[in-house]
Amino acid sequence: MAHADDAELWAGGTLAAHARAGGRTVVAVPRSNATRDGEAEAGAKLLGAECELLDDLATHTVADLLTRLQPDAVITHSPEDIHPAHRTTATTLLAVLPEVVIANGRPARVYHCDGYNGLDMYGRPLHLPVIVDVSATWDLKQRAACAHASQPITSHFWPMVETLGRLHGMRTGTTYAEAFQPMPVLGRLPAADGL
To answer: Model-level pTM?
Structure first.
């Protein structure tokens, strides 16, 4: 993810659910400063995840991370996200996928997450057909997001995230949900229910 709080805001409930199910869950974000790095570690810990603080998001750094971890699934931002740092992060991941997947066979599944008010950089709704019920982990998501006390979480980000969580939940008859778009990995899309 592009920022210390992105994993919690956009996929925290899903990450917490995977961690609860016993899967190794890793949040990877670039280093920022001591405060934000500490918040990233605290937020990941609340989700039940490990935290990888990267020196940068250069292609070789991302390729090395994926080669070392060999994840089954990766969640990143949309390449058409409204935030330029989110787009750059997604583009970097997409640039290294062919080489890493050919060498290791992993990741087999890549998804992009929701974005600001569910819109892309052109003002169109993001297409997010994979919806994950996170009602049981919503409290962990909120606590992990609020661990980023240096950011305007409660006054700015959380009301939007809460609205999106309820909206995606209503689509599937649950209280809260997170939504994702499967991205092709060497021309193969993961099953819609694979996340």
So the answer is: 0.95
